[in-house]
Structure formats: C-alpha cells, structure tokens
Amino acid sequence: MRLRLPLVAATALAAVAATAACSPSAPSESAGQGGDKNATLTVATTTDVVNFNPLLGNSRTDGWITNLMYPRLLTIDANGAKQPYLAADRGYSDPTTGFYELRGDMKWSDGTAVSAADVAYTINTIMTKKPAGNVVYGQLANVESASAPTATRVELKLKRPDATVVDEVGFWMNVVPKHVFEKAPDAGTFANNSDWVSAGPFKLTTVAKGQSYTLERVTPYPMAPAGTPNVAKVVYRVYPDVNTEILALRNGDVDLIANALPPAQVKTLQSTPGVKVQEVPGLGYAHMTYNMTRKPLDNLKVRQALAHAVDYEAIRSVVLQGQAVTTGSSPIPPVLKDFVKPDLKEYAFDPALARKLVTESGVGTLRPLTMIYSLQDAVTSQWAQLVKDNAAQAGITIELQGMDRNTYLAKTAAGEYDIYAGNFAIMDDPATNMALTFLPDGAINYTKVDDPALSALITKATATTDKAAQKDLIWQAATLVHDNVYDNVMYMQNLYVAHSDKWDGFVVKPSELLSVVDPQSLANARKVG
Amino acid sequence: MPPVVGFVARRLGRAVLTLWFATTITFLLLRLLPGNPALAVATPNMTPQTQAILLRQYGLDEPLLVQYGKYLWQLVQGNLGVSITQSVPVTDVLLERLPWTLLLTGSSLLVTVAVGIPLGVLAATRPSGLLDRLVQVGGVVGQSVFVPSVAIALLFLFGLQLRWLPIGGAYSPGVYGGRWYLDVAAHLVLPCASLVLVQLGSYVLALRATLIDSLGEDYCVLATAKGLPHRKVVWKHALRNALLPTTTLVGLQLGFLVGGAVLTETVFAYPGIGRGIYEAVTQLDYPVLQGAFVLLAATVVLANVLTDLAYGLLDPRVRTQ
C-alpha cells in the first residue's frame, strides 16, 4: 500500500518522459532566417504539398509552389491567350516540327543557365517515364522526340501534324533542371524534397510539413520590375478549413488567400474592412453530360428535353449569387475571346417545351434518371437539388446520387450514371479540350459520344496551324455539340480571391491555378500599408 | 502464478486480440470503399494503363487474401508500407505528425482531469447549489456540442475579436529558439480548449454522480460520525472510490479524443495525425490510412490496458476477479 504512491509517481514520470521524448522539437534556424528586412507575403492555402517534383504534382498547392520554382515556357493573359514566358517565341517550322526559342537570360539558382537542353530533357523524361498524374503526358501523344539544336532552341519532332502541342506543352509543363533531375535514380518518382535548384522569382528554403512553406526572393529575376521581386519572402501557410483561413486573413495572420472563395463568402468579405476581393476570370465550366450509352439518353429529343428543363439563370443567381456567366450552352467559355461563338444561345428554361419534346421522342414514359455528383463540391451539391426540382416541373424524375469524391470518380470511370454533374477545371485550348471531351477515346468523354462528323471536325482542328481556319472548325464543332446536346454547359464561374488591403500590384490571370499567385503576380506584389 | 501476473497477462492478451481485430477491420473497410487510389490522383490525361501501373506498384491489384497476408506480415515487422501520394514510408509520415497529436490530446486529457476533479467534487459536495446547477447545465451542453462549432467560436472570439491568440497552425513560421516554445504553447491553447470543453462535461457529471453515491455510503457516514473533517471525508475516503468509474471513463474518452482530434486538427490547421487522416481520406491513400488507424487503435488499446492496470492498483478486488 505504501509502495503504491511512489509507483504511481514513477509511472507518471515515465509517461511524462516518454511524451517529452516524442514531443515536437523546435526547428533549427536555417540560413534563410533573418537577413533581408523587406516584406513577407503570407499566403493561405487549404492543402498541403503532396510532392515537390513538378513532373508528378497533382495537388493545387503543389502547382502554386512548384510554379514559383520551375518555369513554364508560356503563360496566359486575362483573355485566355498564351503569352511568352521562358519561351520568347514558339511555333512550327513545318507541319511536323514545333519549336520554342528561349529568352536566354534565366538561370537556375546554382548559377547554371536555363537552356534548351533542360526543356528537351523534361519533355523526353515525361514521355519515357510516364510519371503518375502528369498532365502533359497525354498532350505528347503526337511527339516523337524533343531536341536542343542550340542553347536556346528546342525542337519537337511530331509523328503527325498537331497544331495544339506547342502551346499546350508550353503552358502546362514546368521545366526542370536536367543537371539535377538526371542524377536522380528515377526522375519519374524523384521526391525532390530538399536542396532545391530552381529558376523562378522565389526559391524554396524551409518546409514545415503540414504548416508552412517559405520561399525567398531570387535576384536577378528578369521578369520582375527592376529585375527583382518586390517581396523578400513568400510564405504559404496551410489551413485545411476555409473558415479558419478567412479568420486568419481578417486578423492579419495571412495577407492573401490563394484558393477561390466559396460564393457565399464573397459578399461578406467584400464589405469587410481591411480586405480586398479580386475577381479572377474562370477558365473552366460547370456542366451536365447525358450518358448516351444508356437509353433513352441516346435520343436527341430526350436530351433536348433535359436541357430545357433547367433554370440556368436561377442557378447562377441563387446558388452562385450572380458570380457566374452563361456560355450560351457552348463548350467554349466566354473568356476565350478568340474562339467564343457569340450566336450560340443558352437552352431556355421551358418545362412545357421539355414535356412536348419527351412526347415527341417516342420513348413513352420517361424512366427516373440518376444524376451523380461529388458531395465535396458544395456548389454542385446545391444546384443538383434545383436541377431535380426544375425537371420535376417538366414531369421528369431525376434521382440525385451525391457521393464522396472517390466513389464519384469510380462511378464516372465505370460509366455508372445517367447524368454526370461536375466541373471542367481549365479549358485553355478548345481543340485539345474538345478532343478530350468528345472524341470516342477521349479521357473525359462522359457523354460517350461517337459522332463521326464531330470527330472529323475536332481531329482537323487539332492539326490546323492556321488560326482562322482552326477557329472555323472549332465553331462548327461547338455548334454540333450545342445542337445535339453532347454536353450541357451551364455556366462559367467567376472566381474571387481575397487579400489584405495593405497589398497591391497583383497581376490577375484566369483560372484558380494562376489567379494572382502565378510567378509574375507574386514577383510584382508589394506591401503598401 | 501470482494473481497480479495473471491479471496483467490476461489484459495484455486481450489487448493483442483487440488490436488484431481492429487492424483487420480497418484493412477490410478500406477495401470495401468504392473507387481506387489511382483515380484519386488521376488527371484527364491519365490512361487506364497508367492507372493499372499505379495499382500494381502498390500491390492493390492482387487478391484480397494476398494483400491481407502481406499487410499482416509487414505489420509484425513494423513496416506500414509506403504512402501512395507522397512516395515516402508511412512510418515517416506518421512519426512527423505523432508528436503534435500527443501534445494536443495529452494536454487536453491532463487539463480535463485537472479541472474536472475539483469541479466534480465541488458540485457533489454542494448538491443543488449554484455551482452544481451550472456544472449540470454546462455538462449537458458540453456533451451536446459539435467540436468544429466550438472550435470556430473560440477562433472567432479569441483569435479575431480579442486577438489574444493565433489562428491556426502549431507555430508561426520564422520563430526560433526559446520563443518557439512560447509560440507553440500559444497555438496549443485554443485547440486544447475546444477538446477540453467537449469532454469535460461527461467527466464532471460522472464524477459528481459517483461521489454523491460514495458520500451516502455507510463508511462515509461513519467517518463523519467519528468527527472526521468533511474535507477529509470527501478527499481521502469518498473520492478514491468515486475515481474508479471516472478512471475507466478517461480510458474510454481517449477514443473520443482521437475522433475529436481529426476535426479539431483540421479546423485549427494543427499538423497531427487527425489531420493526416482527413487528408489521406480525401486522397484515398490506403497505406497512410491503415497506418494511422493501426497507430490510433494501438494508442486506445494501450490506454485501456493502462486504465485496467490503474483500476487494479486502485481496487485490489479487480486483480483477483
């Protein structure tokens, strides 16, 4: 009995010691600490970095951080047009040879020049290693090989004419340093999680996993004002919950929220003192596709009836609080001014017409149709209910099947749905994206459409380098999609990001991937308050 | 065999069995989920062949029994596999996060007990008094609230309105040395408080009820009749017996703490295992999920073993049952 107290005390001490042994330890002071007293821009994000190898990156935050370190050949302007970045010029010297001419004044952080050899190496590595999750691999289907005939010229040898590959690869691919990545046992699985050699406006110096990522200014950086970024440091901080993220902005813990705000938060933040809300054009769209391999959705009149049984304006004004625009039920979003077809009109919400079309279709009583969507997509989850209610007015029964993202992806891949509801994130090149969406073997052909006339138009458009001719083909294809309801594009959402009013100078670019956090924007950002 | 040795051996045997059952259920539940991890990292340009390569790479294309056999064999060797999304050993992923979860759950458990015992005693010794009523109402409310709601309310009040404490994270970037420990403590206050608030109620109410029962027992009445000061009767005689059920409750609450930690760590951007689970679920990272659940199951089982042993220490009758 008398021994018990010491025994309990000893046990407690042992527990404390054990806890202390595996308690969090203080980080050591890195070389990046102290020094420059210039401003630090703190950016909030909701997700952690999955990996630092841009050949593999699949999370949004991965993209934001690796974009600051590994340059792209091209960027995109507010009108959705590709613009020079690392490549000063690009094009085709003949129908089966694409080229990039690099600017020649960029260096890796170890002093080595960024050269055509790095670009050719990156392309060839993607083609041979097929890194998991790489977005460029699919765009290289028509590329035989890449070479670097000079220090600044890259040439792509094509298997067949392909008018999209130069711009698409130029925009989507981050160039990696050959002299670093070729030393890795396998560049396709290389973790690249320390001793970074990069060539952006900021260099990653400190990582606190799950917490923050600190990047420091690189001088010189030729694409910044006066050759150097305005801010000394950019720190990304992770807040998985968007409400916490917003509180952190409001109390000054962070200066900018990188991810687009939920529609419901936009108005609140617009009237919050000390906060500025910036509009970012969307490059994607929300859509519903009707699985044509399932009867009666192979019937055009049924698809038209479904298209006329949705109150699109109500969805945009109620669910998106006016933060979205119509695309005229066209697969070309209005931001792509060079390609948009203005005479395509949105399907009118007309329950009576929808009923009439169902009667004319000859399918008899329409069976209940299932609609799948991801419950993690709050906006889609809200408008799905409206779609169901609207359809009911036309006598059409839609059974909603909201599910977790992985189940949704699995069902989508297996084609287990009548109606697919979701989003197309970035539509930057109509020909490429239409090929993915409407060709029979397209990776995201959720309509399961196989229309020879449409396929011919898209195939021709992807091989046509003449812009005017390509635009004409795209217009014809868009009209076919619209008239046959091969895709029901409902709206293009305008995105909004929030930052502290003590900051300005951000350069707005379309899409959440670029928005105000692309390298040029962050290099131009400055603290004014 | 001495009764104590038999008692400990029985408890440990039961713990191993529980752990095996928990790991098996975890394994099966994850495989029953629709979808596959290749789709979680899929892009529009990922071909079915690439997906197949990815699944083969992680052995997810093998028959279920083969996967299970390998999983158990690796487990007994202390190998939790490799994270699908991060391409690093799961052990590394978890060990990086474990200290934060231990700090958060450990401190909240400690605060709950430290605050709960005096509150429970005060409420029980003055039944129907103002404090007792407050404890009862507060206890019921505390048991009913949703952790994230408490978390956001605390953040709003102390982080935004009063600006006393930081919003989110475990520490601020760029803080080093001695200041770092203070910074960690400041970041710990709100997540710890939210966990304490939701678990304190049940702890205090349980202690209050058992203490009121104990105080009505003959041995306490006799002790009072013998002229022992009331404080001594309460703290020395009644409390020891009243602590038995509440000790069990502490062990049981560790399971709830783990569940609460997933939500709390997510709202507070705290980099512990709970948030790791949240991220692994969204990415369908089987190995990380399996590893995290095994680790948490082991923690809960271990806590319950320790609770049983403590119970045996406090109540000799238990050792001989």
From TrEMBL, chain A:
Family: Belongs to the bacterial solute-binding protein 5 family.
Keywords assigned by UniProt, alphabetized: Signal, Transport
Superkingdom of the organism of origin: Bacteria
Signal is among the record's keywords: yes
Coiled-coil positions: none
Gene Ontology CC annotations of this record: ATP-binding cassette (ABC) transporter complex; cell envelope; periplasmic space
InterPro entries the record matches: Peptide/Ni-bd (IPR030678), SBP_5 (IPR039424), SBP_5_dom (IPR000914)
Organism: Micromonospora carbonacea
Gene Ontology terms, MF aspect: peptide transmembrane transporter activity
Protein name: ABC transporter substrate-binding protein
A biological process term (GO) from this entry: peptide transport
Residue ranges occupied by any Solute-binding protein family domain in the UniProt entry: 93-438
UniProt keyword Cell wall biogenesis/degradation present: no
Pfam families registered for this protein in UniProt: SBP_bac_5
Subcellular localization, as worded in the UniProt entry: Cell envelope
From TrEMBL, chain B:
Pfam families registered for this protein in UniProt: BPD_transp_1, BPD_transp_1_N
Source organism, top-level taxon: Bacteria
Xref: CDD domains: TM_PBP2 (cd06261)
Subcellular location: Cell membrane
GO cellular component, one term: plasma membrane
GO biological process per UniProt: transmembrane transport
Protein name according to UniProt: ABC transporter permease
Natural source organism: Micromonospora carbonacea
